[in-house]
Amino acid sequence: MALAIDESVHGLPETTPIGHPLDWSWLRGTKAEWGMKPVPGRRGLTMMDIATGAYGEVLDEPPYRSMAPRGADIDEETPDMGYILNHKSQVWADNVIELYEEAVARQWSSTRDIPWNELQELPSDIEHAMCQLCTVLTEIEMIATDLPAKWMWRMNHHFLEAKMFLSTQIMDEARHSDVFRKRALANGGGLLLSRSADESLLRSILEAKTYTQASALLHLLGEGFILDVFRQGELIAPTHVEKKIFRLSMQDEARHVAYGTMHIRQAIAADPDVADEIHEALDHGEQFLIEFGTSPVLSSALAMLLGGGAEHVEDKGFPMQSLLATKIFTSYLARCERAGVNRIDRTDLPLDLLGINLDDFDRTGA
Amino acid sequence: MKENVNELTFYQELADLMNGHPDQYETLGEVDFTLGVVMANEDGEDLRLRLRFEELGCRDVSPLPEGGESSCDCWLEGDTESWGEMFDDITANGRATGRYTINSLTLVGDHIDVKGDDPMGVDRFFRFNQTIQQFFDGAAQLAPTPA
């Protein structure tokens, strides 16, 4: 429904008082619907509420490569911004709008929402182990800001909601780097060791050749792994302060994994050849992940925390770490299945050593 | 052990508590999550219920038929004794501590598991974990169960 200029407004000038030309054609509305008027729900007005009519139509191959907003009356001569990710399946996930709203609603502050003044003095070995874990986490979390940032400016603006979701991921990961840095320093400890194995994993993710490869490495492999590390962190947290840090971080990470799982699934559905590209990336990524997960620094710190201190590192810490490794890699393989990437028959992960029984494994990912 | 943890009314009381204090959940943000609870009793009278979380509240607590948990995003399955120990810890400490948080219980041991037909549904348990933990922690605020 267009607002008819000739019915409601008359006699508008053709130029500004100093002679510049004016364009009043916007008063006639656009090719898209005028008067959609989405109704806010109890939460307020969400992006799902306004994804109606032409505004909600996300095309597989948008006609423009500019920042012009989807649904507007776009100038045919709008400039090409040089985007290289111009097909929906290259960036989209059908849950991305929901995840964006969820991310916005569930933002938290490491300054305000963590009861820092309730931290307790811990035995020296436990404090050191917690600080070492936080050192690793504050180092690696920023990869999940750098990587989306590397690709976002190459994504067609038609896929606005995907870019908005990745913006929330960038904020989430900045907060994780922030909160673990704070925890390392807040209880009288400090930052401890940074070792090269961690950097190798990060570099392999950053250097991925395509965004979909990068997403597989980051969202499916890396963040899936870190989600489980956060679950372990919540388990071994010495006080409710650390438990809350890990739980809130876990929530954020699970959103990122949910996006990646669905994105990879849709990318493969649109182009089955993409699966080979993803397998190739994961072949390398899994090796780096094993190197990272078994690094002498990270594994010893986790074992110390799982054992409840130096005294029980061997009889409790390492056995529990082994048990949890089974869960971590089972979860990873299940997510790959859900994403449409069959890693079970291809992976070089030492499944026997990890205690994963393929006969019991449900290929639906359950 | 709290004696009514295997009764639906107990979870309705937790829901009422949550619904009565949306301010306590506001900083955590809205939720869209359907969680099943399957509690195995020794006498074979298993409790199966559905907890529907929407926005800042728990909008529905209702019984599920056998197998009905599959209609949920995911479900928590364990024996009554383990659930009782979790709620005892919450009551004693004002919140779940140590290995009695719902994440920890589902991560180690085999007493309470998080299960689902779809990993995306199971991941919702992690996406809304702080809210779910706070919901269960509400048990500390309910009137003590007579011995």
Can you offer a commentary on this structure?
The complex is a heterodimer of chains A (366) and B (147). With 366 residues, chain A is an all-alpha fold. Chain A has twelve helices and no strands. Chain A has helices spanning 5-8, 47-50, 96-105, 124-140, 143-152, 160-186, 196-206, 211-236, 240-270, 274-293, 296-307, 313-338. The model of chain A is unreliable at 1-6 (pLDDT under 50). Chain B has 147 residues and is of the alpha+beta class. Chain B has six helices and five strands, in the order ααββββααβαα. Chain B has helices at residues 8-20, 23-26, 80-93, 102-107, 119-127, 129-137, and strands at 31-40, 47-55, 57-63, 74-79, 112-115. In chain B, strands 3-2-1-4-5 form a five-stranded mixed beta sheet. Chain B starts with 7 loop residues before the first helix and ends in a 10-residue tail after the last helix. The model of chain B has no long low-confidence stretch (mean pLDDT 92). The interface between A and B is medium-sized, with 41 and 28 residues.
**Largest sheet report of chain A:** none
Give the biggest sheet of chain B: 5 strands, mixed
Number of strands of chain A: 0
Rg over C-alpha atoms of chain A, rounded to the nearest angstrom: 25 Å
User: Unreliable segments of chain A (pLDDT under 50, ≥5 consecutive)?
Assistant: 1-6
Tell me the strand order in the biggest sheet of chain B. Answer: 3-2-1-4-5
Number of helical runs of chain A?
12
> What's the quaternary structure here?
heterodimer
Q: H/E series of chain A, N to C?
A: HHHHHHHHHHHH
